[in-house]
Amino acid sequence: MEFSHRPVLLRETLESLAVRPEGKYIDGTAGGGGHSQAIARKLTTGRLLAIDQDPDAVRAASERLKSYPCAAVYRGNFADLAAAAEKFGMVPADGVLFDLGVSSYQFDNPARGFSYRADAPLDMRMSCTGVSARDLVNTLSERELARILFRYGEERHARSIARGIVRAREKAPVETTLQLAEIVKASVPAAARRGPGHPARRTFQALRIQVNAELDRLPAGLDAAFSVLKPGGRLAVITFQSLEDRIVKRRMAAWSSGLVPTPQDPRRAYRREPKARLLFRKGLTPSEEEIRENPRCRSARLRVCIKL
Predict the structure, then answer these.
(1) What SS3 state is found at 303?
(2) pLDDT tens by residue, 238-283
(3) Which of 63, 215, 252, 301 makes an SS bond possible with 283, Cβ 3.0 to 4.6 Å?
């Protein structure tokens, strides 16, 4: 299956990054290379580093960018962006981009186990290494499963779903995506089954976030990206759900306000010179036309800050 990831908010992202032909740019979540290719097309003497942890994405981005001498592709997690930038001589950078969405390839390729719409091994690992979703649902306690579903999926029925998973695995291991989807469906009230969207959507989101440590690594990734920017450099982040958007919003707000939590008491803060300026107060969302062409982008939001 071809790796496809339609670049969301492409025009708005390129304009926000203010790509210069001689600049240095890092795409920290390259996916299939859609945003990276658009940046590379604007470069002459400049350079681009495209990073992704997914081996399929690295292969696809390498193929897409092979005709651009200015571009290099590297396999790694965005939390380690600073080290990768140093390795490739990309410090200081003019711009860094994070597109935090899961690619269409990852959702639509049954073998990757991200979707509840097709039967496949219960995997969800973006890096194809480490602990899988199957491992989690078959080994974690009912209490821990409920915590993950509530925290990362904002699932109201987290306890009953966790209870249903534990009861099901007592009979046989939960091995596939459809198996899990049916367990979730049977564990929620009838009203939830009749509501919009699949009742397993939040459960799958929560497990995916836990498997890939997405929210745990995001603050480190944002700090790494900001640290490699030159003064006047821009950090652009596209989010797709409220939990990750909240982290990005608060990080950029802290940089732009100058408020810093005290180490002794994180609830208290002191003020110092702002480190950044927000380009958009509330961020940008896709146009109605883009949503019609790509319904999966409806929840996207682009936030951008400029390093002072």
Answers:
(1) strand
(2) 999 999 999 999 999 999 997 666 666 666 666 678 999 999 999 9
(3) 301
